[in-house]
Amino acid sequence: MKAIIRFFAVVILFSIGQNAYSQDPNFHIYLSFGQSNMEGAAPIEPQDKLNVNSRFQVLEAVNCPDLGREMGKWYTAVPPLCRCKTGFTPTDNFGRTMVASLPENIKVGIVNVAVGGCKIELFDKDQVESYVKTAPDWMLGMIKEYNGSPYARLVQMAKIAQKSGVIKGILLHQGESNTGDTLWPKKVKIVYDNLMKDLNLDPKKVPLLSGETVNEEQNGKCASMNKIIATLPKTIPTSYVISSRGCAVAPDFLHFNSDGYKELGKRYALKMLSLMGYKSDTKSEPFIVQAPLGFDQLNTSIPAGKVETISYESKTVGTTRKVTVYTPPGFSTKKKYPVLYLLHGIGGDEKEWLNGGNPQIILDNLYAEGKLEPMIVVMPNGRAMKDDSASGNIMAPEKVQAFANFEKDLLNDLIPFIEKKYPVLKDREHRAIAGLSMGGGQSLNFGLGNLDKFAWVGGFSSAPNTKVPQELVPNPEETKKKLKLLWISCGDNDWLIENSKRTHDYLYKNDVPHIYYIEPGVHDFKVWKNGLYMFSQFLFKPVNQSAYAKYTILGTAAETNIRNAKYPQILPDNRVMFKLNAPEASKVQIDLGRKYDMQKDEQGLWAVTTDVINKGFNYYSLLIDGTAVADPSSVTFYGMSRMASGIEIPNKEGAFYDLKTVPHGDIRIKKYFSKTTNSWREMYVYTPPGYENATEKFPVLYLMHGGGEDQTGWSAQGKANLILDNLIAENKARPMLIVMLDGNMGNTGGVAGFNENALKAFEKELKNEAIPFVESNFKAATDSKNRALAGLSMGGLQTLYTGIKNSEMFSSIGVFSSGWWANNTQLSDPQYEFMAKNTEAINANLKTFWISMGGKEDIAYENCKIMMKKFDKMGIKYSYSEYSGGHTWPVWRHDLMQFSQVLFK
User: Fold this and answer.
1) Are 317 and 386 in contact (CB under 8 A)?
2) Are 94 and 266 in contact (CB under 8 A)?
3) In terms of CB atoms within 10 Å, which of 293, 431, 507, 714 comes out highest?
């Protein structure tokens, strides 16, 4: 009996010893080592000691009585962070950047052991003794502070740190003393491998981040070593090189100065944050947007789920079929579970996910972190035919058809079987479907086609079997009500991405909430595993649809990009990511009306993510060291009195200018000689579908651009041809010619076209040159009832001036975002006097006098408001339209769409 009691006492004591400390998973520890640049060679300024976040801690590796610090204890990370009298180090700003970028519940700890001037051999535990024997006298004192072995001290402190938190990474800055040593990567690997072994760490989960020496561009004395450092990832696959390019340096060209350490430390942090899955450009609460390092690696210390392959009878196929099923850790038949049906691709079967994606490991890890609702995952064979093997010609018609036939097998055979064999919740709210490639198409087709069966639907890199959006979601309102989550993801270099994009575009325009997740990658399991990691965490929980837009790594290249240009990219919420390679520039901004400062990375690549940008067309410029230039990655447009970049932002209300499968007219570019200006001039003329073979004459709308633009504006920026093509196809507008003239009248004095001389010149040009040319060279009706004039901004003034004074020539005039200037009575008063005297004639001649504004944010709004009050007093008849959007092309496109529908009827 005493022996039994003694045995249990020993067990209890052992258990107490093993659990005497509580490791906090939210305390992230980073080991750092190296030579003088890791020690920190920059002086510590008074401001460096202020406002250090208490979430950033340092584990003192030596005794520092003057600082009130003891070895082996944690302190707020006020510098110095290495030894008692070392300087400012990259780890200072590494930790500060980390805590600023991570959720408030996460702390960051640093263990810094470094020795100035040492070779990497000093950290090789098998060589330290021989190295110390040959070390110079000035180094011996530093080594002595670590009791003769910096490596042993690092491990000693790391084990203490592990009692408090979890080691997440290792930071290295060393190499100056090994310059030219091609064996350096292998020597670093020895140290890294020893750390992994001595601290029981998994290299697949604990990366090594190694910084470059002072860069060649900064005349670094050891810069040649960077070529060797660059090869480190070949030797250590989980290592990453941190560039020193552009980091400010000290006068000795061996060390960085304080600013250089701050930038280098920030770069270490940004790389680590990306490896942890955090989105680096978020300005709100930090969140994980991709799977972190090690998410798919086996962890033998956590509970594991069970995987089994079983058989079920399929009446649909007329045979017994196999299915693989994952049950979660702690599975109990006394509890009911939701179910995820997870489908494979065209070349796979019921074991493709297991063989290529290790879903059981991904899910086990998520369960252990408390990020997943317990669920059963069913992985069937999606090829519903008797020989359902992935052999022979997998593209054979009968095998492709079998994937479509699987819908019946799934609904009528498999789901009933699973619900009979396993304790599952049988309502649609607890049933999800997702898949990769062909399985992604199946998931979208089956899930969205059976919303009475599924509330959670996901497609990873969906294949061309995906139905067109109008068939997938024929009733957007019903889909909105029933769907809990619709997930669409794809790699940015996947050749099948167009299937995902067309679905997203349709859902966006129809306001169907969904996540559109684009990530770097191709058509492979790297992308699909990440898709499963992200998608599965949403399932069977309350969802916040307002946050959907933030869940993506990359955006979609703007349609206004030049061929093959990846940036600018538009994010799902219409923020824009810009990138520019300009390594020699000192300052780069994006000017979108508001200026955004771009940040340069270590490769000389400038980047910024904007706020949400106005829908439709927007001009923008690059400001490179103060000079405005066009973005070489974007199509250019004549605007702002020069060639400028433009970006087309998705617009839910922009279907009226989409390129659709309807008959299309032409844009014809015509040169004509003007006697009025004594010069050759150019006009753009839209001819409607069927114009070439028509026998009748067409009505004509003369359509003017704004200030700083020209005759190309209404076709390039305004999409006038597409607007009319769509309206004519829908019988909403009469087929008509649209003549887009150059309203810039040369040297007419004053500012652009905003003066009497310029307006008179335009009137003369239109009446004496443009109209006669059009009526002589096109099938144009020549009477006033078939002639209209309209314009935006400056073109609106031209329309007011010429259209009112010559109202007998036009049946309609349209004034978009314009009006006589209230503060220029010298110009406006004569116009009002003319109108007051000719009110009756103007009202009789103009069937339509249409005025529109872009809401209160339109810069012409107040002038127009004052002008219309004067019209009211005179008795001038007009109609008014307002469409929010300011003084912009999206507003003017809408104006043309509305105005053209009232013309010539």
Assistant:
1) yes
2) yes
3) 714
For residues 612 and 629, what is the distance between their CA atoms, to the nearest angstrom? 23
The label of the residue with tokens 């996901």 reads 458
Burial annotation 557-582 (CB, 10 A radius, 16+ → b, else e):
bbebbeeebbbbbbbbebbbbbbbeb
| Burial of residue 104, with CB atoms counted within 10 A of its CB: 0-12 exposed, 13-18 middle, 19 or more buried | exposed
Omega within 30 of 0 (cis) for the link into 80:
yes
pLDDT per residue as tens digits for the range 613-632: 989 999 999 999 999 999 99
Residue 869 exposed, middle or buried by CB count within 10 Å (0-12, 13-18, 19+):
exposed
DSSP 467: P
DSSP-assigned beta bridge partners for residue 704: 791
φ, ψ at 163 (rounded to 5°): -75, -20
Number of neighbouring beta carbons within 10 Å of residue 143: 19
The string of pLDDT tens digits covering residues 396-419 is 999 899 999 999 999 999 999 999
- Distance between CA atoms of residues 294 and 304, nearest Å: 16
pTM score, two decimals? 0.88
3-state secondary structure (DSSP) of residue 864: helix
Residue 721 and residue 733 in contact, taking contact as beta carbons nearer than 8 Å: no
Burial class (CB in 10 A: 0-12, 13-18, 19+), 721: buried
Cα(859)–Cα(410) distance, integer angstroms: 59
Q: Of 360, 279, 297, 300, which Cα lies nearest the Cα of 324?
A: 360
Dist CA 324 CA 350 (whole Å): 6
Asked if residues 459 and 500 have their Cβ atoms less than 8 Å apart, the reply is: yes
What residues are labeled active site? 36, 252, 255
Over residues 346-372, the pLDDT tens digits come to 999 999 999 999 999 999 999 999 999
How crowded is residue 304: how many other Cβ atoms within 10 Å of its Cβ? 17
What is the residue whose two structure tokens read 């292998």?
186
Identify the pLDDT of residue 287. 84
C-alpha distance from residue 774 to each of 668, 734, 799, 809 (Å):
12, 18, 18, 15
